[in-house]
Design goal:
The protein has 472 residues and is α/β, with parallel strands linked by helices. It contains 21 helices and 17 strands. The protein binds pyridoxal-5'-phosphate (PLP). Pyridoxal-5'-phosphate binds next to helix 8 and strand 10.
Length: 472
């Protein structure tokens, strides 16, 4: 190695020295010493790598190894959240169910119930009437049955787990018939063919990508067939010359041969969205009425609750699924039960309350005029800094629901558009992202958009503060 690199490496300040400065500054008051130490090691490790990889002399000199520089980076890492990795962010992307940003925001009633149940003991698995051991699933069964009309219900860790568990229970070592148009991928980690292989079932593909007919299913049914599966192609649409078999037709076909039908609904909408001008997702209720033996969906997509995989269906089938030892490995915790039960209570109290109190439904159905007003309020808060480094405008655009729900739905919305002056939009986006708290928008050509659909009223002031910090 060249001697200048060695000199440079040797002049990196020591961990002890930096840590004692951090301690004097009070940085360790809100952050455990070990966490600060790890943060510091990672900063210094990166500096070392940069020095070793640097090519020319000026590349070397661009690497800041001053005490002030390193302390600045450490402060930026530790101050926002006491060094915690999981942080609150402002979602101004307009994507209501953003899987990378935690999907559904919980209703206040759900949060209050988590706090109540988790801050003390509970009757999680204790029957208060008889004084004997109870069942954690009992808390959700009655309400799920009452809202959806299902004969029986079970809740597991997430929908991928629900699909795996149902397939494994009903069809291990046997064949499951699925349309080629429904062999979907949801994110990189959930692909129907993979989950089928993992659950030990044999995939029997029928039809073509764009067209599958009832006769295709009928021809595929044989002595090895254990299940007919339909998958809601959540995150995409096949349009044009297409045909698919409805769950009614499929359930009727299966019924003749005594073969159960299962539908993976993905989002699991429980309400009618049409009055809000949004194309309807199939609801759990309608899918059950159509004769599906089992229906599975997520708790944290359109339902607007905690992460969970909800399984509804015929009593005999759900009972078999519940007895599978794999079920124990996918069991839900008390936070999920508390949050889900409180969310379901909002549905039980009537759709109107659900649309008012469940943030996911409220955001999806937010009236356009309200979004425009919100954008105006934000603009008024930041008008003073207008001329400096950016041009602001309120624009009409459209937001996406996300989370694999309603992929074709374009929800008209209003956004604050920031066009930076003298810097690239990418670096503007990065500065908002690195702000505390991070403010995440979406880039459209050379403007950064903050979509009002996913921004709460209380967050406008935070965004305004970020604009002042980033732009002035
Ligand atoms: C989202 C989705 C899943 C996975 O659900 P998770 O709750 O994320 O595990 C499975 N199937 C479909 C059709 C989906 O849309």
């Amino acid at each position: 190695m060249e001697s200048s690199k060695e000199d440079y490496l040797r002049s990196i300040p020591s961990v002890d020295e930096l840590l004692s400065i951090a301690s004097r500054e009070g940085l360790l008051d809100s952050c455990p010493r070990r966490v600060a130490l790890e943060a510091l090691r990672s900063i210094l490790g990166r500096k070392r790598d940069e020095i070793i990889d640097s090519r020319a002399e000026e590349g070397l000199r661009a690497i800041d190894i001053s005490i002030a520089g390193i302390m600045g980076e450490l402060r930026a890492k530790l101050l926002p959240s006491g060094g915690k990795s999981l942080r609150r962010v402002i979602n101004a992307t307009g994507v209501v169910l953003h899987t990378n940003l935690g999907r559904a925001v919980l209703a206040k009633q759900a949060l209050d119930n988590i706090a109540l149940i988790a801050s003390g003991y509970s009757n999680l698995e204790f029957n208060l009437d008889s004084g004997s051991r109870g069942d954690r699933y009992s808390h959700l069964q009655a309400i799920l049955k009452s809202i959806t009309g299902a004969e029986s219900a079970l809740v597991v860790n997430n929908n991928a787990g629900a699909v795996l568990l149902c397939l494994e229970t009903l069809a291990r070592g046997k064949e499951v018939v699925v349309s080629r148009g429904e062999l979907i991928e949801i994110g990189a980690s959930f692909r129907i063919p993979d989950i089928m292989r993992k659950s030990g079932v044999l995939l029997r593909e029928v039809g073509t990508t764009n067209k599958t007919r009832l006769a295709d299913y009928a021809e595929a049914i044989g002595p090895q067939t254990a299940l007919l599966l339909k998958v809601h192609p959540s995150n995409y649409r096949i349009v044009g010359f297409t045909s698919e078999v409805s769950i009614e037709e499929l359930a009727a076909l299966g019924g003749k041969g005594g073969i159960p039908t299962m539908m993976d609904l993905g989002s699991g909408c429980l309400v009618d969205l049409r009055p809000y001008g949004i194309a309807q997702e199939p609801t759990a209720q309608a899918t059950l009425r159509a004769g599906a033996g089992l229906v599975t969906f997520s708790g944290d997509k359109l339902l607007g609750g905690p992460q969970a995989g909800i399984i509804l269906g015929k009593g005999e089938l759900v009972a078999r699924v519940a007895k599978n030892p794999l079920h124990r490995a996918l069991r839900i915790d008390k936070f999920t039960i508390a949050a889900l039960e409180a969310t379901l209570h909002l549905y039980a109290a009537g759709e109107e309350l659900a649309f008012e109190e469940i943030p996911t439904l409220r955001m999806i159905t937010a009236p356009l005029e309200g979004l425009r007003k919100k954008a105006r309020r934000l603009l008024r808060k930041i008008e003073g800094i207008e001329a400096l480094k950016a041009r602001f405008a309120i624009i009409k655009d459209s937001s996406a629901v996300g989370g694999g729900a309603l992929p074709a739905a374009e929800l008209p919305t209003f956004a604050l558009a920031i066009e930076p002056i003298g810097q690239a939009v990418d670096s503007l986006e990065a500065r908002f992202r690195l702000h505390d708290p991070p403010v995440l928008g979406r880039i459209q050509k050379d403007r950064l958009l903050f979509d009002m659909r996913t921004v709460a009223d209380e967050e406008l002031e935070i965004i305004a503060r970020a604009c002042r910090a980033v732009l002035s």
